[in-house]
Amino acid sequence: MPAKPTFRSGVHPDDAKELTAASPIRRLAFPSEVVLPLQQHTGAPAKLMVRVGDHVERGDMIASAQGFISSPVHASASGTIRAIGPWPHPNGNFETAVQIEVDRYSAQMPRRRLVPDWEELSREQTVAAVQDAGVVGLGGAAFPAHVKLSPPPDQVIDTLLVNGCECEPYLTSDHRVMLEYSERVYLGIRIMLHCLGIERAIVGIEQNKPDAIEVMRSAAPADLDIEVRTLEAKYPQGAEKMLIKALLDREVPSGGLPGKVGVVVQNVGSVATVAEVFETGLPLVERIVTVTGHGVRKPGNWIVPVGTRLRDLVAESGGLTDDASEIIFGGPMMGIAVANLDTPVLKGTSGVVVLSESEAPPKEHYPCIRCGHCLEACPVFLNPQRLGNLAMSERWDEMVDHHLMDCMLCGCCSYVCPSNIPLSQLFGMAKTALRRRPAA
Amino acid sequence: MNASHRIVTASPHIKAADDTPTIMWSVVASLAPVVASAVYFFGPSALLVLAASVAGALAPEALLGNRGARSLRDGSAIITGVLLGLTLPPGIPLWMAFLGGAFGIGFGKLVYGGLGQNVFNPALLGRAFLQAAFPVAITTWPAASKNWWALQGDNFAFPLMSPKVPDALSGATPLGLMKFEQTSTPSLDLILGSTSGSLGETSGLIILVCGAYLAARKHLEWRIPASILATVAVFSAILYAIDSAHYPSPVFALFSGGLMLGAVFMATDMVTSPVTHRGCWIFGVGIGLLVVTIRLWGGLSEGVMYAILLMNALVPFINRATQPRTFGALEAESKP
Predict the structure, then answer these.
(1) Over chain B, what is the mean pLDDT?
(2) What residues in A contact B8, CB-CB < 8 Å?
(3) Do B145 and B231 belong together in one domain?
(4) Are B234 and B272 within one domain?
């Protein structure tokens, strides 16, 4: 078998996808309450448009985008606004959120609305419709989708890469979308190609999802220049820079965005969501979440309203097991551990992984033995060993000289470190310290 | 729902299985066949010497290690003790072996701050100390003995007293024979290990197999022994081609002395070898060149120890000079 395209270095964690890979996507009952933070995306937070006591229907805009790199927030269920204030956020802080008490007797039908016909719209109008629908990247980083669809005029884009890697262990929501909604993914690709004014798209899928590769290949429309390619299953294959390197052998310059090498990358989930906006007129108010791990009794892939609290999600998944030890928003490599069960699912929450004690045993810390495994694992070829030493003595400027800013906090170095040194945590700390430091 | 306790840690939340003690203990385990062959060739003396050097290495680690007796659990001091023992002749007095181990850990590792901080390979530093302090005892080689149970020398010499050197002990190592008497040893004896020498200088074949096992488990950087052995082979082959009467053959160069043990187990010590791939190649080539140079033109018959120690000193510079090019950085921009 010829080697599958990939990037150099990276790691091969146990993907544990068998827990949910075969579970069809199921819609859960509406919870009694949803909580919608105004900050669910990269960029400026949305601007509040409602007041306590207002009644909202499912799909109504409750906060508008503030500027171009921002995204509006829509009510994900019909009900009454109960409170607006600080609420636990998956990022570990309290952020302003709108709390909606869901109307128990509502049919949860959205208001009648005009469904835009994208084929009649100009590129700009299509992009605006995507922004109005609040679509953000569903792969985790939640970068507003419309920004990537309107590259600056000096950039020549030639290829749309559709990211079906899902390289984070445990998560299977993208896998299931490709299996069950392949037609919708292709409609989304058509719309995005229209926005970008280009013809060519490549779908990259890791080889551990052969069924998804087969379905996507057989569903590929003949009139589009679309290629479905198999990639080696390796973390972080789904990182934009790694995906571009593997599929096109182009290297995004340090500090640059994919547009610099003529590429736009969108996650399959986001592509399907864009299609849905133009099929139903409904903005991004629900998403597919993989609830998995050995710490939860009934793992599965669920469609839930954005803003569903962890408490409700876990209850619908059969509850936690007795040895559940860590709850993670996102995948186990880059996700954030949360303790508060009121934390809501965001637009960018691709999964909730509940690890049992045996999956996340406590690890003892040892001194660095300079084994060099972190250098071998780093997908952007940094020297995490040196960076780690610098971080422990708070030499932030020297870390920048050692290319700290190229680090994407993928966690490969920490994953392989035999001395269990929390390297990527140190690098995240260093980045935060540099960001907070007043400009000289 | 169980709310008794929930952990909140930074990502990544899953970890590769191998931790530092696992790596260290797997090195210890892979040294077992080498130790067994030493016992096979040299009898009980081999076990006694190894036990003394291990005890010497463990004592300061347990008493003075910055993690106290816990330091012993990571297995690194045992490696130092075993490796030092393997570089010693079977007839050396036990108190010297003990002292070598204690010096190696005490002055080779603990004064730098313990595990991970040392510049030089502690086992080799211990041996260099013994070489300087007891030049006769460390170069006294037993002749092949008929009786497996017989001790190979005055192992139980009283501390600080000179050991008795019985007349029967007049063996010489293949390298010594080569250098001082211009006699060569059959290649098969060298490869299988049935020659005179230090405990671990005998069977190159067993050492290679053990090293391959460690490399397959990614507990050993294969580039280092590969580059050392290739350099020694090529350098020796060139000299042999020029003057085969005066210079040894590449096979002799590869399988004599402590080269195999040094290349596979000493130079690959993670702490004292480079972290970058390119650095490992440079490090190995440097050791290979120094080994041949010292053996052929130096005052000693064996040069592996000093070759590795000298290159250990250069590791920080090698690391700095071989930083990988950052992804997406232009060649010229990636400097530190």
Answers:
(1) 86
(2) 326, 337-339
(3) no
(4) yes
pLDDT digits (tens, 9 = 90+) for B61-83: 988 877 777 778 888 999 999 99
Global pTM reads 0.90
Q: Which two tokens stand for residue B268?
A: 């690959």
Q: Assess whether B53 and B187 both reside in one domain.
A: no
Domain extent for B74: 17-171
Tell me, rounded to whole angstroms, the distance of Cα B248 from its chain centroid: 23
Asked if B272 and B118 count as a contact pair (C-beta separation under 8 A), the reply is yes
- Give the pair of three-digit tokens for residue B31: 């040294």
Q: Which of B5, B13, B221 to mutate to test the interface with A (most CBs of A within 10 A)?
A: B13
Question: Is the separation of the CB atoms in B160 and B242 below 8 Å?
Answer: no
Nearest CB partner across the interface for A375, out of B12, B14, B275? B275
What phi and psi, each to the nearest 5 degrees, are found at residue A200? -110, 135
Question: B27 to chain A, minimum CA–CA distance in Å?
Answer: 13
Which chain A residues are within 8 Å of B278, Cβ to Cβ?
A: none
Cβ of B326 within 8 Å of Cβ of A385? The answer is no
Question: Domain extents for chain A?
Answer: 1-31+121-360, 373-436
Give me the CATH topology for the region A1-31+121-360. Rossmann fold (3.40.50)
Distance from CA of B81 to the nearest CA of A (A): 18
User: Is the Cβ pair B329, A256 closer than 8 Å?
Assistant: no
Chain B CB contacts of A359 under 8 Å are: 14
Q: How do residues A20-73 score in pLDDT, each as one tens digit?
A: 999 999 999 999 999 999 999 999 999 999 999 999 999 999 999 999 999 999
Q: What is the ipTM of this complex?
A: 0.87
Count structural domains, chain B. Answer: 2
In the block, residue with structure tokens 């933070």: A37
